[in-house]
Amino acid sequence: MRILVSNDDGYSAPGIEALAAALGAFADVIVVAPDRNRSGASHSLTLDRPLRLTETSARVHHVDGTPTDCVHVALTGGLLDAPPDLVVSGINNGANLGDDTMYSGTVAAAMEAYLFGLPAIAFSLCTRDWAGLDRAAEVAAQLVRRQLRQPLAAPFLLSVNFPLAADLARCEVTRLGKRHSSEPVLRERDVDGRIMFRIGAVGGEREAGPGTDFHAVAQGSVSITPLHHDLTHTARLDGLRDWLGA
């Protein structure tokens, strides 16, 4: 099995190292990831300059761009002899629940593979300071092994969020919850007195009941959410047609 691994925390982050090691025990793994932390990059491409690829070893490369850049370069830049059987992203340092998926570089890396018609999984750890990382990597590998034994129809895109004590026996298929609006930006001044802003904290949970990714993780379950890229608001189509025809 050939697996492409990327992330948004950077190629040297503990999460991607643990994931690549766990998958490398049974698969041919190649890592193509950002050269530094690009959290929150969402599904952005670098179009204003060329991208530079650096090989740190035969199976590890980093790109001076976004997570989406990394997967795009890996799939179309001649790095691979053949398309990978699976693309995985992570393990992210922090949750990607609910509205987080719109901003997440971790999810975006997997989404780019999905847009190329490949199966893809984004893995995120719902703790800080990498607490529970080794166990999360083990469960991630177990899920990938299951895909190897019983393949889901491709393409697919899954967002997997691990609680502190991840356990394959406690996996729940979920939908995305919702957050309240983000906190306001923080207004500061630099040493020269110029105004600057820092993005505020994410909003708290607004829709986090049973069936959501928030609820599953809060109950200690591994949340697995199937995603897709169609942003069409189908319930609005007829109303919009009526509005145009009025």
Key terms:
246 residues, alpha/beta, Stationary-phase Survival Protein Sure Homolog, Chain: A, nine-stranded mixed beta sheet, two-stranded antiparallel ribbon, 7 helices, globular
CATH homologous superfamily title: Survival protein SurE-like phosphatase/nucleotidase
Topology as H/E string?
Answer: EHEEEHEHHEHEEEEEEHEH
Task: Give start-end ranges of low-pLDDT stretches.
Answer: none
Distance between the termini: 56 Å
Give, in spatial order, the strands making up the sheet with the most strands.
3-4-2-1-5-6-7-13-8
Q: What is the CA-based Rg, rounded?
A: 19 Å
Strand count, sense and closure of the main sheet?
Answer: 9 strands, mixed
Beta-strand proportion:
25-35%
What is the CATH third-level topology name? Answer: Stationary-phase Survival Protein Sure Homolog, Chain: A
Per DSSP, the total helix count is: 7
The overall average pLDDT, rounded, is: 95
CATH architecture label: 3-Layer(aba) Sandwich
Question: Structurally, how many domains make up the residues?
Answer: 1
Please identify the top-level CATH class.
Alpha Beta
Counted beta strands: 13
Question: What is the molecular shape?
Answer: globular
Helix content: 25-40%
Q: Return the structural class.
A: alpha/beta
What does the secondary structure layout of this molecule look like, with pairings?
Blueprint: E1 2-6, H1 14-24, E2 28-34, E3 53-57, E4 60-63, H2 67-76, E5 86-93, H3 100-103, H4 105-115, E6 120-125, H5 133-149, E7 157-162, E8 171-173, E9 178-179, E10 186-189, E11 195-198, E12 205-207, H6 213-218, E13 222-226, H7 237-245
Parallel strand pairs: 1-2, 1-5, 2-4, 5-6, 6-7, 8-13
Antiparallel strand pairs: 3-4, 7-13, 9-12, 10-11
Helix pairs in contact: 1-5, 2-4
